[in-house]
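<amino_acid_chain>
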Amino acid sequence: MKKIYSIIVSLLLIQLVGCASVEMSSSKDDEQYKQFQKPNENEVGLYVYRKPTIFGAALKKDLYLDGQCFGETARGTYFYLKTTPGMHVVSTESEFSENHIKSNFKGGKNYFIEQNIKIGVFAGGASLIPRSEKKGQEDVQKCKLAKIGNKISHTIAYTIGNIDEVDFPEDEIEKSPTPEIEVNNVKPNY
């Protein structure tokens, strides 16, 4: 029994502090996107990032825009994508099913979404948190640019009507590092 307990504890520790890596973009592109230039009025800039925390470092999680996989995150990575203004769904792979954020993205603006890794039953889960421009820029400065398409592309299926729309916090109203925003009708537990 003691041996089984040791194996379970070892597996949990590997999940919490291991190290995963993904294909990275050039340092030149990383520096360029960290200038946070506003996109044209007919484009939306989308930063999706995962902080460089030790927790969950062994995990890699897929990210999707409108059901199409654009890459896989590892600890301390971010993606920069340009898309069209309008309603879009950003999703992340999690332990049992994907988690989604749906929002009406306005042209000429950058948006920031944090992928948060959390403890799971069998493997770590992930959630998405809309962040203000100020908070997002601070967090992205600590990350490195991952290469879009660093994972074999695949799609997920979902019904857009079942996903609640969220608004992104403005800098002046974000008073704590964790805004109270409902995603998929569930408030994050912090």
Remarks:
- Residues 24 and 146 are 4 Å apart (CA to CA).
- Confidence is low (pLDDT under 50) at residues 9-19, 172-190.
